[in-house]
Amino acid sequence: MRTVLYARVSTAEQTLAHQRAQAEAAGYVLDEVLSDHGVSGVNTRLKDRPEGRRLFDILREGDTLLVRWIDRLGRNYQDVTDSIREFIRRGVIVKTLINGGVTFDGATKDPMQMAVRDALIGFLAATAQAQAEATKEAQRAGIDHAKANSREDAYRGRKPSFTPAQVVAVRDMLSTGTASIVEIAKASGLSRGTVYRIKEDPAGTDALLAKWY
Question: pTM here?
Answer without folding.
Answer: 0.63
